[in-house]
Amino acid sequence: MDTTTSSPGVPQAVIAPVHSAATPPAAAAAAEPLLARKPRRSGGFGPSGLLGLAVLAFWLLAALFGPSLMSQSIGAMGGADVFAPMSAAHWLGTDYLGRDMLARVIDGSRYTVGIALVATLLASGIGTTLALLAAASGRWIDAGLSRGLDTLTAIPSKMFALLMVAGFGSSVPMLIVTAAIIYVPGAYRIARSLAVNINAMDYVTVARTRGEGTAYVMLREILPNILGPMLADLGLRFVYVVLLLAGLSFLGLGVQPPAADWGSLVRENIGALADGGASVIVPALAIASLTIAVNLIIDNLPGRAAREGAR
Amino acid sequence: MNLIVLKLLGQRIAIALLSLLAVSVVVFAITAVLPGDAAQEQLGQDATPEALAALRAQMGLDVPAPQRYLHWLGGLVRGDLGTSATTQMPVGTLIGSRLPNSLLLAAMTALFSVPIALTLGIASAVWRGSWFDRAASTTSVAVVSVPEFLIATLAVLLFAVKLRWLPALSYVSEIESLGQLLKAFAMPVLTLSCVIVAQMMRMTRAAVIDQLEAPYIEMVRLKGASPMRMVLAHALPNAIGPIANAVALSLSYLLGGVIIVETIFNYPGIAKLMVDGVSQRDMPLVQACAMLFCAGYLILVTLADVCGIVANPRLRHR
Q1: Residue B61 C-beta-side C-alpha neighbours within 13 Å
Q2: Alpha carbons A256 and A249: distance in angstroms, whole number
Q3: CB of B201 within 8 A of CB of B120?
Q4: CA geometry: angle at A20 spanning A304 and A207, to 5°?
């Protein structure tokens, strides 16, 4: 993967002109499907991609339906031992208050997956919309948007999150807004560099000449052509958001008790670490499985070569 | 060095300074303006208007926000960082006592991770497509896509709990010998290095492959140079710019990583100070730490760019 994708919100942001960041992908994306699709017939996914899809689907289903399927209520103390090992009654053992760990992890998936999903969709949606606007309208709007969003990338993502928590406290809507703001500039930069290339195409000029408005050019001419790469980017951004939120919760500054996402679960049960208890390992592994699954899916997407070329 | 290079460098530094100014506006807005009235929050809903007005005057909240910002910025430039709201100590003193610890941690991590990352990156570029390359890149993807605290937790589990080689927490104050120094730093440095090595290795690999696929390398191979000479004498000098760029960018990642690592190992550094400040909502402390981190980040990112410019032979010999 390239520098723009492997380090969130980092580099060229502050310095390099926005245009150069990812000029090749559009060209590569256009040519690539013809080359890459042939060898992989089975729906475009290799075995590792299918594995990633399965893990992702599992956690999505757990987040959607899990809590209603659990027999024990989330907060129930149940009289079990603190940090009990895995057993028939408690499949994943119990946590630092003797609560069932399986129920806690399933409930945590709602926060981890849910918040990250909403924040990512917001970030990519806003970023893409602004990028379309910048590409399709005049130079001043473009320059203003680009400079403004570049400023945000000059603050490391964790630092920005800490500032937001210091200023506004931490609640679920707050976390969503924070993560969305942090990842808008990255989505914007990639979408803009793609959109600017499309904007220079003849068919866009034709559309303008026949009198179509800015909104039509944005939505009907440019958007369909940048959708593929943007979806891959959405996946990467989702991983970053999951990691950021988990990190925040681990510091005790994310999702607040009694609710707990996976990051908070690791924090709460860190006392079990000395015995290698399941209550601290399982939520940590849950995060890793989710992020690695999404990475596997992205690496097996048909548009993969496009991003490799974006170096 | 010539005029073009100097002009480009000047531009980069000016942009960095402007960014820092913009960052200070954002930092001040988030911590001191947008959250609303700090005096109201401190006194609660049923405070008398007189008490409210008095506290506002004491906290300097009775002047408009732009004026407060200028006052704060002026203090920042003069080195007067204000007084911590919780400990009533000057923020400068608090930061001054913690900063050397963090810098030491960063320096040790850099010393440890840069050579490893460069060696691995160059090796996997030379043997690209081999089992070594595939193993290295799979591992690095796995490492970058898990949270730092997972690596830290696993490291504690392995080295402190199972093997009992290292202490789980680091106490910098008790260091007397080199052995103790290594022991105290081993875990935090190991954790930080894992993530940074992975990133730096991938960028180095990309930079070297970029050069190895250039036509002049084919020429070198055709004239019969040994593979070792081809990589070290021909490809590397041209890849130095991108590699230096990758190193500086990866090191800027340290700034995010230390926040988690210092907290988990209870390391008395500046990131721990800031996290404590955030949970106690100690605004002057948070503002100062945030500006310090952002300045460090901008310096590294600018340095990455400067390396790219200075190492570009087309700019040097024009």
Answers
A1: 18
A2: 8
A3: yes
A4: 80
Whether the link from the prior residue into A258 is cis, omega within 30° of 0, is yes
* B224 min Cα distance to partner chain A (Å): 30
Residue A73 has pLDDT above 80, yes or no: no
A201 vs A87, higher pLDDT? A201
Q: Is B266 left (phi over 0), alpha (psi -120 to 50) or beta?
A: left
- B40 burial type by CB count under 10 A (0-12 exposed, 13-18 middle, 19+ buried): middle
- Chain B positions in Cβ-Cβ contact with residue A152 (cut-off 8 Å): 26
pLDDT of A305 higher than 60 = no
Distance, CA of B147 to CA of A259 (rounded, Å): 20
Residue A294 to chain B, least CA–CA distance (Å)? 9
User: What six digits make up the tokens of A4?
Assistant: 């723009």
Question: Cβ B286–A162 below 8 Å, yes or no?
Answer: yes
**Could you read off the pLDDT of B70-86 as tens digits, one per residue?**
888 888 888 777 777 77
- Interchain pair A6, B259: CB under 8 A: no
Which residues on neighbouring strands pair with residue B288, listed in sequence order? none
Q: Which residue has the tokens 């940048």?
A: A226
Q: Looking up tokens 């606007």, which residue turns up?
A: A133
Both tokens assigned to B15: 């942009």
For residue A271, what is the DSSP state?
A: G
Give yes or no for a contact between B140 and B201, defined as CB atoms under 8 angstroms apart: yes
Question: A246–B149: do the CB atoms touch at under 8 Å?
Answer: yes
CA pair distance A216, A197, nearest whole angstrom:
17
pLDDT on residue A123: 92
Report the greatest alpha carbon distance in chain A: 74
Phi and psi of B3, rounded to 5°? -65, -40
What pLDDT score does A39 carry?
A: 43
The nearest CA of chain B is from the CA of A221 a distance in Å of 34
Residue A79, φ and ψ in degrees, nearest 5? 70, 10
CB-CB: which of A154, A158, A166 is closest to B19?
A: A154
Backbone angles phi, psi at B170, to 5 degrees: -110, 130
pLDDT number for residue A42: 44
- pLDDT, greater one: A199 or A8: A199
Handedness of CA A24, B250, A263, A170 (dihedral sign): negative
Six-digit token string for A202: 């003849």
What pairs with residue A100 in β-bridges? A94
Three-point CA angle A47, A52, A55, nearest 5°: 125
Where do the H-state alpha helices sit in chain A?
Answer: 3-6, 24-36, 47-69, 101-136, 139-153, 157-168, 172-199, 202-209, 214-216, 223-250, 262-268, 278-299, 304-308
- Span A274-300, mean pLDDT? 80
The answer to whether A14 contacts B301, with C-beta atoms less than 8 Å apart, is yes
Give just the sign of the alpha carbon dihedral A276, A277, A282, A284: negative
pLDDT tens track for A2-22: 333 334 333 333 333 333 333
* Contact present, B278 and A166 (Cβ < 8 Å): yes
Q: Which of A120, A261, A11 is nearest to B19 (CA)?
A: A11
At A308 the three-state DSSP class reads helix
CA atoms of B128 and A265, how far apart (whole Å): 40
Say if CB A105 and CB A268 are below 8 A apart: no
When pLDDT is cut at 50, 70 and 90, the band that residue B1 belongs to is low
Which amino acid is located at B36 in the chain? G
ipTM: 0.81
Tell me the average pLDDT across B126-150: 83
Residue with tokens 């104050």: B173
